[in-house]
Structure formats: structure tokens, C-alpha cells
Amino acid sequence: MTSRRTFIKAGLLGGLVLGAGGVWYAASREQAPAGRLTRSARSMFQAITPVMLAGMLGEGSGRIERVVDGVERAVAGLSAAAQSELADLFGLLGFYPVRKLLTGIGDWRLATPADIEASLSGWRFHHYALLQGAYAAMHDLVLGAWYAQPESWEAIAYPGPPEVR
Amino acid sequence: MTIRDPIREGLAAGWKVLDASLIESPRTLEADVVIVGTGAGGGIAAEIMTAAGFDVILVEEGPLRSTHDFRMLEAEAYPQLYQESAARKTRDKAINILQGRCVGGSTTVNWASSFRTPAATLAFWRERYGLTEYTPEALQPWFEMVERRLGIGPWERAPNMNNALLRSGATALGIPVGEIRRNVRDCWNLGYCGMGCPTGAKQSMLVTTIPTALGRGATLIHHLRAQRLLSAGARIDALECQPIQADGIHPRQTAVTLRARHFVLAAGAIGTPALLLRSNLPDPYSLTGRRTFLHPTVIAAGQFAKAVHGHAGAPQSLYSDHFLEQYPIDGPLGFKLEVPPLHPVLFSTTLQGFAAEHAEAMRGFAHTHAQLALLRDGFHPESHGGRVELRADGTPVLDYPLNEPIWEGARRALLTMAEIQFAAGAIRVLPVHEQCRGYANWGEAKEGIARLPMKPLLTRVVSAHVMGGAAMSASAETGLTSPDGSLRHVDNVSVFDGSVFPTSIGSNPQLSIYAITARNASILTSRMTGRPAPPLA
Ligand SMILES: Cc1cc2nc3c(=O)[nH]c(=O)nc-3n(C[C@H](O)[C@H](O)[C@H](O)COP(=O)(O)OP(=O)(O)OC[C@H]3O[C@@H](n4cnc5c(N)ncnc54)[C@H](O)[C@@H]3O)c2cc1C
Ligand code: SF4
């Protein structure tokens, strides 16, 4: 499991790798059709969603997929500049050496919830703004995608929009 | 009761409305006046200038959506009606900015609170920027005219619980609270103003001035981004525009060129300065986009034993200006207290934390009362606001460094809101800050907030009020525009929107924009026609 301290140590090194990473991973970078997440970004969100929404998501079948679809739609609705920034971020986190160094996670599908939670907590308070920004982006995308769905509303006692007309 | 949709009625009646996402071949259109942007400034200018008989083209980068399209769903409203899907951020991502991007601009999605420009703000403008004609008395007829036009008046219904709790807490502490006037007619008290009013009650530009202008023969082109003003000597000859695809995001290659005698820029703060930066017009003092203000806003969420239902009812009906009046206007930053409407997406993404911590706060959603403190930036000698810059693709980004005077005010504001919320009976108060897990009483909050590090990305800062970047001033050294909103160094361009303010307003800005635009558009109209400008309907 990755501790906060590992993160803080990884900061500088991470900065170097991220700086150079752009060149390294560009060649092998996975492309997705317009408006879609890459396969590796999808598997990252599939792993992060139940952790981000722990205590709220519940067991309903297909919920994780619906949240990830919602993330995909949300990303597609952002400005072109924000979309390309996110594509870079997802690309880096999909790039094994960078991901392993920053999160200790080799494969999102094999990571335990505790590993993922530790990663998110590490990014949240990281002194490296890129990782703090990564946390903020995950936070907004996953939570926004869930609470946009009517199936999330009962648990928070939100009745949904009133009838008009 | 049947709900009218003046836009759909007008389209059926044959208004001249073009969707640039569908235009097949390059085009050039000509008019007397081209107005860029259809928000607060663009709407008012369009009504005044069409009343004077000008042939007007309105350009809007966002889509045309109207009353019957508004389904009160965040998943639809943010991507369709807001700049960058309501996720526009400052360069360092420390401030989330809400701005409208649709026909009607931010007025289509705003919360209907209507305040005249504070006298103290106008006094500062007269003293520091030589805006000698900006007195409350001189502006009064303009305020009255737009208030009449937009149905601005007292809110007769009871405030919702979210607002009422601001009053009960403040009153318990001896802090005066006032009632907010709203620009509504026959309001259903639903609380969804931020997603486009589904009843047409909110008197946004979408249901008032724009239908009037289109009914008089103006042309509206939506999905069209004004890209660059082209000059020939001191005159602007044409406006080069870029059609946007149906997705509202990606540009298309077909060029649209607009020619006119006069160009009115009303693309809003950030939007108007960005257009000027792309146009590379003379700017000897390098003022374009500088001093852009936000009313940086901090938030506190209070949990109550009783239900609050902050999603329902007129979003804003009560406020307090007490903390704007504590210090001199250029002293420590004052703040205005209000409450925001609470809806699941905006609330959950604004709230700190994740997993159990976040889930617990969300389970209290219906029992949450939130307060906003809007910091008055631009008056303190070290509050310079932000600067609009262009990305490589020509789109704007605001660089707004949060500095010490802001953080000092933010901490005071978080303390104040917590104290008021506990005085109103909160069982827990959660200032929105990454390192805060909430407090059970005022004593704890007082100690805890005093220790919270005030830093970008830790303290949540948001804004729905973007102002400045093309300031009016009597002096060319401090004002890109003259006191009547005309752009300096060229002959035929005016700026009629929130970007002309030399400081923030210190209050919700829409009514200031309406009235100052009415004044300046009337001055321009009478200069162009040689006759007094006709009043608003
Ligand atoms: C959620 C929300 C709530 C608010 N609540 C209140 C409130 O209760 N009371 C209040 O007083 N104020 C409120 N405001 C603020 C107020 O609505 C704005 O300050 C005001 O509408 C700004 O007017 P404007 O003319 O400067 O710009 P806007 O109204 O923002 O209009 C600018 C328009 O120009 C368009 N545009 C931008 N660039 C281009 C381009 N290059 N080409 C073509 N078109 C372009 C935009 O898409 C937009 O439609 C709120 C704002 C928001 C977002
Ligand atoms: S509260 Fe009134 S103005 Fe706002 S959305 Fe509802 S009906 Fe429209």
C-alpha cells in the first residue's frame, strides 16, 4: 500500500518523469474516437468509481458502468482545451511506469480499494499541483456523473425536478 | 396555465435566426450594427438599437435553447447553457467560474437577484476613474427604466428555508439582513433558475429584449463565435467569425464575415477582452483583459435537524451587506452574504472529500443550508484581480492569483458564516475546504477555521460574477474604454457588458450591467441618429 510519505517523496521524481513522460508515452499513446474515453481511462474510472463513491454507490447492477458512461459524456462536454488536458492526464496515468511510480498501482483492475483510496488521498494533498489537479478532476467527474443520475437521488432525499405544465 | 415560449413563437412567425453549425458555405452579411453576445449587455443594447430603427445582427457562440427546452436537469443544463460545461476554471484551477454560454448569456441561467450598483462603488469610480457622471442620481432613471422593463421588484413570497436560516442566524447575532428584489413575473417559486427558467417567469434577455429585437427584424446567428475584428485605419471594417459545430465545442472551417457601421462588444468579461486580444487592436497601456474581477466566493454548508430543501423555492431572497460596511471600501476585503440554490451535481462536486466523508455529507443534502460570501475585489490596493490570456487555440483563460488580501477576507468570511449558521441552530458546520471535516459548535469552528491553511485548491473558491478587463475611465492610462463605453483608439466599437467595470461591483452585477448598458447604448444611438434614443419597452 502506498503511504502519504511515499507520495511526498515521489513528488520531485514524479515531476521529472511527468516532464519527460510526454515524450516517452506519446509514441505508444492509445487513441480513442472523439467523445470517448480510451480503454485504459475507462478501466481507471471503473476502478476509481466504487472508491470515490464508497458508502453511497450501493450494489445496483451496472451502476459503475453508468457512472463511467456519465464521466465520458461529461468529458465530451468540456472545452477542447480541457479535453486535451484531461487526455494528457489520462494518458500519463495509463502509462505503466508513471502510474506505478505515482500510485504504486500496476494494473487498475488488480488494485485493491485500499490502494486506490491511498492514491486518491495522496493526490488530494500532494504539493505537486498536477496531482492535486488530477484528484480534483476525478472528484468532480465521478461525483458529478453519479449525482447527475436520477438513481442517485433517493439516497440524498432529493425529489428531482417538479412537474411543470 | 399554458406556458409561453416567445422564442418558439417567433421562430414559427419567421424571425431571422441562423444556426451557424449548419451553414454550408462562407458568407458575408452586413448590417448597421453588429452586437457580439446576447447576455445582459447584448440584450439591452439590441432592444435600444432596434427601437431606433437600426438593422442589427446579434452573434452568439452558444446555442439557442428556450423555455420549453428547459427540463430542470443539471445533466442537460450545464453542458448546454454554460461556458465549458460549468467547469470553466482559472489558470491554476483554484477558482471555478460559472458563466452562461447560450442565447441570453448568463441571464438565462442566473438566479434573478437584482441590486442597483452600490453608492460606495460609484463613489470610488468617480474618485479613482474620473467617472464623474456615475452618480446614483444620474443613474436613477436608467435603473428605473430597466427595472420596469424586466419586472424587477420585491419578492412577495416567503423566503425558502435556505434563505430564512441566513436571516434567523444573522438576526440572532444582531446582523441586519435585507430582502432581494428579483426580475420575475408570475414566478412559480420553483428554484431552478440556474438551469433555465422552465416557466418563462424569469425576465432574462431570452424572453424580453431578444424577442423584442428579433420581432423588429434583427438577425440572430447562434453557434457563431466572434473571432477577430479587422481594422482599416482607425475604423473596424469587419468581424471575422467562426461557426461552432452542433456539439457547441469544436470550430468549423466555414468563415462568416460580418460588416457594420458600428460594432458592440457584449461577450461578457473574459469573452470581450479575449476578442480584443485576438484582434490585436492598439492598446498602448496594455490594459486589455487586466483587472478582471470575480467576487471570489467561499462557501459554508450547515447541517440542520430540520429539512431545508435548498433546491426548492426562489434561490436567493435574503442577503446581508453588513460585512461590506465594516471597513473602508479599500481596506480589508468586505463581503456580501447570500445563499446558493442546492442541486445534486453542483453541490456534490463543490463539496470536499470523497468516499465515506463525502457520502455522509451528501446524506444530509436535504438538511443542508449553505451560505456564500462574495468578496469585493478590486478596491484594496493589492487586489488587482486577474488577467485574461489566450491559449494556443485562441480561447481565453483567466489567470487570477489568489493573494493575501483575498485569503485574509476568505478566512474572516468562513468564520462569519460558521458563527451565523450555529446561531441559526446548525448541528454541524462544514466550511468548504479540503482539510476540514466539519465542526460541532462555534467554539470548535472558531479554533479550527483560524488554523485552516488558506491556499489555492485547498480552500474552495468559486465565482458567478465575472467583471472588468475593459475598464471605463476618464483617463486613457487606466481605461481601455471611455466613460460611455466606447473603445479607445478606434472609431466604431463600443463595449456594453460587465467588462467595462473598473472594479468589481460589490453586489450581484446584472442590474448594473442592464442600467449602464441602457445609458451607454442610448448615448451611442443618439450620437448615430442625431435624435434622442427611444426608451426600453
Ligand atoms: C449561475 C449564475 C447565477 C447568477 N446569478 C446572478 C444573480 O442572481 N444576480 C445578478 O445580478 N447576477 C447574477 N449572475 C451574473 C450575471 O448573470 C452576469 O454578471 C451578467 O449576465 C453578465 O452580463 P454580460 O453581458 O457581461 O455577459 P453574459 O450575460 O455572460 O453574456 C455574454 C454572452 O456572450 C457570449 N459570447 C462570449 N464570447 C463570445 C464570442 N467570442 N462570440 C460570440 N458570443 C460570445 C456568451 O456565450 C454569452 O452568451 C449569475 C451568473 C451565473 C452564471
Ligand atoms: S423560481 Fe421562478 S424564475 Fe426561477 S426557475 Fe422557478 S419559476 Fe423560473
Structure report:
The complex is a heterodimer of chains A (165) and B (537). Chain A has two domains: 1-30; 32-150, no CATH class. Chain A has seven helices and no strands. Chain A has helices spanning 4-28, 39-52, 63-76, 80-93, 96-103, 113-124, 129-147. In chain A, helix 2 (39-52) packs across helix 3 and helix 2 (39-52) crosses helix 6. Chain A starts with a helix and ends in an 18-residue tail after the last helix. Chain B folds into two domains: 6-67 and 83-150 and 203-291 and 465-529, FAD/NAD(P)-binding domain (3-Layer(bba) Sandwich), CATH 3.50.50; 161-188 and 297-376 and 403-455, 2-Layer Sandwich (Cholesterol Oxidase, domain 2). Chain B has 14 helices and 24 strands. In chain B, the strands form seven sheets. In chain B, strands 1, 2, 3, 10, 11, 12, 13 and 24 form an eight-stranded mixed beta sheet that branches. In chain B, a hairpin with a 5-residue loop joins strand 19 and strand 20 (396-399). The longest helix of chain B is centred in the C-terminal third of the chain and has 20 residues, at 404-423. The interface between A and B is large, with 45 and 49 residues. Iron/sulfur cluster binds at residues 112, 184, 187-193, 197, 199, 201-202, 314 of chain B.
The overall pLDDT average of chain A reads 85
Oligomer: heterodimer
Number of domains of chain B: 2
Low-confidence stretches of chain B: none
| Alpha-beta classification of chain A | mainly alpha
Q: Helix share of residues of chain B? A: 25-40%
The CATH class name of the largest domain in chain B reads Alpha Beta
Task: Tell me about the largest β-sheet of chain B.
Answer: 8 strands, mixed
Whole-angstrom Rg of chain B: 22 Å
Question: Which two chains form the greatest contact, residue counts included?
Answer: A-B, 45 and 49 residues
Work out the strand percent of chain A: under 5%
State the low-pLDDT regions of chain A, or none: 1-24
Report the sheet-strand fraction of chain B.
Answer: 15-25%
| Number of helical segments with 4 or more residues of chain A | 7
Distance from N terminus to C terminus of chain B (CA atoms, Å) equals: 25 Å
Give the overall pLDDT of chain B as a whole number. Answer: 97
* Secondary-structure element series of chain A: HHHHHHH
